[in-house]
Write a structure and sequence with these properties.
This protein has 2 domains: 207 residues, no CATH class; 176 residues, no CATH class. With 414 residues, the protein is α+β, with helices and mostly antiparallel strands. The protein is built from 14 helices and 9 strands.
């Protein structure tokens, strides 16, 4: 139980301006350091939460969670029945067929690599949220006429406009896997995909029959794309489903291609938490310095209080509260600034990008081209708690030293 008199004395010492300038400077440094560490840590964690959220809601809304590709050259012929069996798994949310091929897309003198997916638009809605990134008129074009929808940045790099005809060079091999002259496929640009990231530079969509004719999958589809509920457990679920299929397939999940992105996010989150926690710890160390100097300065006050009958534990409480006051003040300032940054940092960076004409994240390198943020209140509480606990620990040694002051020796020096 904290003594009321000890609390009043501790708060009065914390707010006092009677300290010399150096003590006030060290005290302000500790408060500012804690505030800065807490603030930046919340910003970093919010950014990492934002990246993880965008990975799950944006990238994985287009990239297949699980993909089964046929081993046999004939493909998966009766894919409807296979898909019906897959849907029996409790984690499966949707199944759709695909035929995929990679090639070079050419328009005039420009040549770019591209991956084109042949899809059934109706079935694709169960596994991909394409309608959120393709304008309604482009979707209507896709349903009514043969052609290709390309990523916006890919079309921009080729200087394409809607209605332009492009040539896609599709690699061909014979039965012995020897390379043949590429097949030239003429497609009309009927729409643009704008996901705001890396896929906009590399991907295209066409109708399933068009892709099948271009690649020779005429008897069946190349494979099945699957959407699941627990995306971060895709590997295990893929194996569970794959073992039950009546056809031989290659099993692949999103972690094969983009798993490093998720791992990098988690690694950066852990490293930054450790680094900034150490920054807060260093700032808290200044509280030790402040209190040690305050104890030396207040020895006469301590002696008088002890002479008047104040107990040692109450002296300890007074100086612990003095140090904790600076920790709480710095943590409070840091939390407020951190919350504001966690809510609006992405918008602020976007404003700076528009004003000064630079891009913090490039869409052809990263899976998104903007800085996402998502404030997690759990992170705020954890960060604030760590800072307060460190501040409290930092007060222990100076406070115990204050309690050991011998009133007789101090009075004798006066």
């Amino acid at each position: 139980m904290i003594n009321s008199l000890a609390a009043k004395i501790g708060i009065r010492y914390a707010k006092s301006q009677a300290h010399n300038r150096f003590i006030r400077f060290i005290s302000a440094s500790s408060t500012s350091g804690i505030a800065l560490g807490v603030c930046v840590l919340i910003w970093v964690l919010s950014a990492m939460n934002g990246f993880e959220n965008e990975l799950k809601t944006r990238l994985l809304s287009i990239v297949p969670h699980i993909e089964f590709s046929s081993v046999e050259a004939s493909g998966i012929e009766n894919w409807q029945s296979v898909a019906a069996g897959i849907k029996q798994h409790q984690q499966v949310l949707g199944v759709a067929p695909f035929v995929r091929f990679s090639g070079l897309i050419q328009y005039k003198d420009e040549l770019k690599p591209v991956e084109i997916r042949g899809i059934d638009w109706q079935a694709e809605q169960a596994v991909a949220d394409l309608k959120s990134y393709i304008m309604p008129e482009y979707i209507n074009n896709f349903k009514q006429q043969e052609g290709v929808i390309l990523g916006k940045d890919l079309a921009k790099s080729l200087k394409l406009s809607i209605g332009d005809s492009v040539q896609v060079l599709v690699p061909q091999v014979d039965e012995n896997k020897r390379l043949l002259p590429p097949k030239s496929l003429s497609l009309t640009l009927i729409g643009l995909l704008e996901s705001g990231g890396q896929l906009d530079h590399t991907i295209g969509f066409t109708q399933l029959p068009v892709a099948a004719a271009a690649t020779g999958w005429t008897r069946g589809v190349q494979g099945l794309r699957i959407k699941i509920d627990d995306v971060f457990n895709a590997g295990k679920i893929a194996r569970e489903i794959g073992y039950t299929l009546p056809v031989y397939v290659y099993v692949q999940d999103w972690t094969r291609q983009f798993g490093h992105v998720y791992n990098d996010i988690q690694l950066v989150r852990s490293i930054m938490y450790i680094i900034l926690a150490l920054v807060i710890a260093v700032a808290c160390f200044n509280i030790v310095s402040t209190l040690v100097m305050a104890v030396n300065e207040k020895q006469s006050d301590i002696a008088i209080l002890r002479t008047m009958g104040m107990k040692k534990q109450h002296i300890v409480q007074s100086f612990m509260l003095q140090g904790l006051y600076h920790g709480l003040l710095g943590t409070s300032i840091g939390v407020v600034l951190g919350i504001l940054g966690g809510l609006y940092l992405g918008k602020f960076i976007a404003l700076l990008e528009s004003l000064f004409g630079f891009h913090l994240l490039s869409g052809d390198i990263y899976f998104i081209d903007f800085l996402p943020t998502k404030l997690n209140w759990h992170d705020v509480w954890i960060t604030a708690s760590v800072a307060i606990v460190m501040s409290l620990i930092a007060t222990i040694y100076p406070s115990l030293k204050a309690a050991k002051v011998d009133p007789a020796k101090v009075v004798g020096k006066i």
